[in-house]
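Can anyone check this?
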Amino acid sequence: MTDHEQFQQNPQDPQDPQVVVFSPELLKLADRRRQALEDIRQAAEDGDANAVVQMGMNCLYGIGGEAKDPGKAFRWFSQTAPDDPAGLYWLGVCYDNGFGVGQDEDRACRLYQESAQQDYAPALCNLGVCYESGQGVEKDLKKAVELYRRAAEGGYPMGRCNLGVMYHSGLGVEKDPKKAAYCFAQAAEQRLPRAQYLLGLCCEFGDGVEKDVSRALALYREAAGAGYPDAQCALGVLYHQGKGVEQDDREAARLFRQAAEGGYPRAWHYLGQSYDRGLGVEKDVQEAFRCFLAAAQGDYTEAICQTGMCYYFGHGTERDYDRAAEYFRRGAERGHPRSMTRLGVCCETGHGVERDVQRAESLYRRAMDLGDPEGDYHLAALLRRDKNPENRRKAALLLQKPAAVGLAAAQYLLGVCYETGDGVEKKPKYAAYMYHRAAQQGHPEAMLRLGICYETGVGAEKDPAIAANLYRQAAERGSDLARCRLGRLYERGLGVERDLRRAEELYEAGERAGVSGAKEALDRVRAALAAPPEPPPVDKPEGKKSPLRRLLDRLKGPKSEE
C-alpha cells in the first residue's frame, strides 16, 4: 500500500475517519517546498558553495527530504571549494566524528584551522576545543580561551557557552563565576540547550548569580524539552528532592530513564538508585545493577564504584570479588575516595587481590585525606586490632568525624569505645547515645547494644520493654545474639509476657547459629516446659495464727504504747 492508498478507499463516505482533506494552500506550499529542495540540489550539482554545504547537512542529519546518509554527506562536503570556510568546517566535523569517513582527529584539526583563518565562528569554537583537549595540537588553555572569545564575539552560542565553562572552572583564565553565568545567559538567550542547563545549575546553587530554584527549574525544563539529557537528569533530581516542585519519584524516574536512553551515564546511575530503593518504580535490584553497569561503562565514576559494590556483596548479580576489586581499582585511579576505601577493604581481607594490610592502610589514609568518612572508619577499625594503647586512642579519635557525619558503623564502634573505655574515658551514657544514633539508621549491632543498656540500666534508664523491642528489631535484621537476649526476656517475663514456647524458639535459632550459651538456655527452658505445673498457692485464713506464732507473741509481752 502506498502512502496515499488509505485515503482513496472510501471517498464517497465523508464520515470515514480515514478520509483526509488537504487544502489547496497546503498542497501549493508542499509543491513549493519540493521545488525549493530540487532547486538546492540542482544548484549544488552546478557548484554553488552554499547549496553544496546545505545538501551535505541534509544528508548528514536526514533533513530536507534526504535520507540520513553520512557517506553521501561527506561526498557533498568534499566538493566544497578550498576557500569556503563553511565547507572546510563541515568536512572537519566529518573527520572529527568519523561521519562517512575514517575518524582522523589530526585532519579535522587542520581543517578547523583553515576555516578559522577566515574567522568562521563555528570553526573558531571547534579549534578552541582542540587546544583545550590537545587534539591535533599541543594543549594550550589560554589559546582555547582566545578562540572561544573570538567565536563568542562573532555571536556563536557554543563559543559563548564554552567561554563560560572556562571562566567557571578557571581554565586558561582567572576563575570568575559571574562572567561564567553571563556567558551562559547570552548563549541561553539563543536557545542553546547546553547553556540553558549550565545557567540552570548556576541559578540552582547561586553560583555567579542570585540563587533562584524557580528559574533553574524553568531553564532545565526548556533544555530538557529540547532533548538535552543533562537537563533531563537535573530536572529529575529536582523532582526526586522536591526542590522547587512537588516531590515526585515517579516523574524523577521517568526523566532519569529519558536522559539515560539519550546517552547520559549519570542518569543511568540515578535510575539504578531508583530501582535499588524502589523510588518511583518497583524495586528491582537486578535492574538496578544493570543500570549501574551501564553508567560505569559510560565512565561515570560514582557508578564504577557502585558496580564494584554490587559485585562485592552479590547485590543484583553474583558475588565476584575479582571484578569488584577491578572496578574499585578503576575508581581509585580516577581519584574517587570511596573506591580507594573499598579497594583498601579488598587489600585488608584479600578479596579479589593479594592480601596486603600496609597497602590497605595507605589507601584508607588517601581516602581519608580526600574527605571520605569511610576511610576514617576503616582505618580506625584496622588500628583497633592492634593491642598498642596509643593506636587504640588514635582509633577512637578517628571515629569522631565519620560518627559526626552520620556513618552508622562508626557511631556503633565509637559507642563500644565509650562503653568499654577503650581509647577514651569510659562514658556509658554517651555510649548509649551513640548506639541510639546508629540504631536509628537500622544498625543491628547498635540495636543489640542499646537493648542491653535498657535491660541492665547501664547508660540508660532501665526499661525491659524498650530492650525487648530493640532486641526484636535487631533479630529481624539478622542478629543471632539479639534472638537469645529476647528469648531470655520471654523466659523471665521481663518487658514482655512470659512465654516459654517463644523463648524456646528463639534459643533454638541461637543454638543453630552457634551463639555461646544458647544450648544451655534451651535445655533450661525445655526442662521447665517438661516439669509438672506448680500448684497454685493456698491462701491462709485471715486472722488465724499458728501455735508457734501465738507462743512468740505471748513471750514478747504486751505492745508498748508510743
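Reply from J.R.: I decoded it. Residues 107 and 464 are 79 Å apart (CA to CA).
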